[in-house]
Amino acid sequence: MHVFFLCIFPPCKGDISVYPLVVLKCLQARYSAKVFYTHAGCTLVALNPFQPIPDLYSLDVMKEYHCAPQPQEFKPHIFIVAEEAYRNVRGQLVPVNQSLVVSGESGAGKTWTSRCLMKYYATVAASSSVVKNQDTVERIERRVLDSNPIMEAFGNACTLRNNNSSRFGKYIQLQLDRCQLLVGASVQTYLLEKTRVACQPANERNFHIFYQMTKGATDEQRKEWKMSHGQRFAWLPNSEKTVEGWSLFLIFMHRITFILHIALQILAGILQLGNVNFSSSSDESQTYFLQRAAELLCVPAEELQTCLRVRMLKAGKQSVLKPCSQAECSVRKDCLAKVIYAQLFEWLVTFINNSICAEESTWCNFIGVLDVYGFECFHINNLEQLCINYANEKLQQHFVAHYLRAQQEEYVSEGLQWSFVKYQDNQSCLDLIEGSPVSVFSLLNEESRLNRASDAKTLRIRMEKELCNNGNISWDKFSKEPHFTVAHYAGKVNYRIQGIVEKNKDPVPPELINLLQKSDNPLLHQIFTDKEADNTTCKGLSKVTVVSKFKNSLESLMKILHTTTPHYTRCIKPNPDCKPMTFEKEEVIMQLEACGIVETIHISAAVSVSLFMQALLKALAEAELDDAKDLQEDMPALNPIIRERGSVQLSNIQEPVTVRGWPMGLALASAPSITVSLTATGFQKMMSVMASLNLPSRKGEYKVETNQYTRGLASIRAQPKGSVKLHCQRSPLLYADRQPGKKCDVTGFNEILLEKTL
């Protein structure tokens, strides 16, 4: 069953009431039984076991779900979602692109889930029996999967809540050809947390790649990177922890090209740069590490030192050199490391895309996998957390608009008896963050464009004045440090104002860019020269703020999502300490309430699970009650009656066509004189209707495969005065193409009544 609480609790008479505690008990019982996936309406709930479960994701399991006529009859699994999206592309005359939206807080298992989805498609979509070079198939599968280790090495880090936390968002498009075979992929990334390179929060670590280098390097590599055994680096805290992934990283590098070795040399230069200390100009270690950094970055050491210790001020057409303070030197050093790493990461994404992306003429559809930051709330939150939580608000709004709101509006428009389910609409929170004319983002951008240093107290006073009418923001007037509090859909978060404007500016001194453009390192020279050619050099970087750039990229992502059929997976973190098989109710209930799981179940279970046949027949055919009573007496011979009388006249076909499938056949056979209103529009949906009918003129020779696999129309709707509306949409539950077990009980009618909008 797809409404998961029915799996645990016996059917109730009348309406079934679902409360958060009911859902919680269900999930806890399933988790204890090592059942980690649960269907909740249109959403799959995934509980993180925090331990390897190899048999759950084996190749045999993949094949089992892929080859099953009805995968929904199997136990809930991420492979069901993957297969449903894949069949939606394959089973339609005009394939619709699909998106798998994986959400959840940090440590809930989003990255692992995305990895499983990619492996599934690389297996079932590339392993085809069609005439194709097997080496080519293996190469496509390998290239797509091998991109994962390097992306995680450069973009993931160990945090307090997650040992493998993605510090960037990514949307992976798996490209399919006309035969729905995997021919390539592309990656779009969002908001890399580049500040982590030079500043790691307490008890957290830098990006994985740095630790993998220092722990896994050979003697030859250490010599090349000027990295002695046992050398400690200021930007690598907690380096005593276990490091994994270096072997996979090396395998990936060996398979594609040796240019990544040059990238590793640049990373080694960043580490040496981090050891430079400006506390004293006479400190010999400063010169030592500065010299090593300059050699690895292939820039003159004297010029590097000048760029870090002296800043250039423009007064009209004249330039004035001014020595930097110790604090300013450290800021410039951090800035240099961040801009190098950010541009290197951007180059890496482009490099991977060039390696795995298919030519545009060879693919026509895609399945997208979205893996973004989870909702974050730390002791200290700043611009990074504001952008991350803003992205989660946008995704929550997409879910609300696509399913919760749209589904209920459809019920109301069709005149169904429906008790409106309340859900949390986060539009007011989004208006606060990004709305016009005044919002948090607009005020930050205005402050960032002023040619003066920002004052946290002044900004807070202005925000309080301009945004006081929005109930989603508040201030603690007794706080020692200026901050503001935003009521997100997942909870309240306090954001520190100090430093937020400077982070939004993200200024890069021009002399640093000029230095890197003159580097003798071919890769470093290339990525910064290309930036100049794209008009995004230091001047451009100083004008385009962080929130503006992120907002634009997120809007582009949302446009893509709105053009696809989404499939939602909610990853749940059972405990905050990542302990294996540990279920803490307080931790889980907060996540369930934040992502609207209970509301989703309520809307999916719109009606009770059984209806009396007499009431059904009366609703469908008031004028044919005598005939309907005769039909009840002839239940054993129901199928012949359907074949004889279950027909419908379509305007574009002269002969009546016979309905295949019990639920619609029952309705039409019960009331042959009823009015049939087809809700299908367009050629694609009309063909979906045709697929559910036996066409006499075709004599069964013409078969149309639809997204409903082997079934026909998804639903029928009783309308006033005996009319019936036929729906061509996919039900979230299994189809009840069977005769009822009891004479007066139409089991499974609601399974036909509920749809998942395409």
UniProtKB/TrEMBL annotation:
GO terms for cellular component: cytoplasm; membrane; myosin complex. Keywords: Actin-binding, ATP-binding, Motor protein, Myosin, Nucleotide-binding. SUPFAM superfamilies: P-loop containing nucleoside triphosphate hydrolases (SSF52540). Residues 554-576 are annotated as: Actin-binding. GO terms for biological process: actin filament organization. ATP binds at residues 104-111. Pfam families: Myosin_head (PF00063). Residues 7-606 form the Myosin motor domain. One of its GO terms (molecular function) is ATP binding. The keyword ATP-binding applies. PANTHER family: MYOSIN, UNCONVENTIONAL MYOSIN-XIX. Belongs to the TRAFAC class myosin-kinesin ATPase superfamily. Myosin family. This is Myosin XIX.
